[in-house]
Design goal:
little secondary structure, two-stranded antiparallel sheet, 8% strand
Length: 51
């Protein structure tokens, strides 16, 4: 639904909510964006090596 709204309607955000994401140390590539959309295309999970 968010993507349909973004693609088809002019939207002027009046405010942005604060984003808090708790992420494990073995997650790479998770970024935030202005619309607070969750994009997982470049996210990778790595193996943690204990020393």
């Amino acid at each position: 639904m968010d993507q349909l709204l973004i693609d088809n309607a002019p939207v002027v955000p009046l405010y942005y909510d604060q984003v808090v994401r708790l992420v494990s140390n073995n997650i790479r590539g998770l970024t935030t964006n202005a619309m607070n959309l969750l994009n997982l295309k470049k996210v990778k999970k790595t193996v943690l090596v204990k020393s």
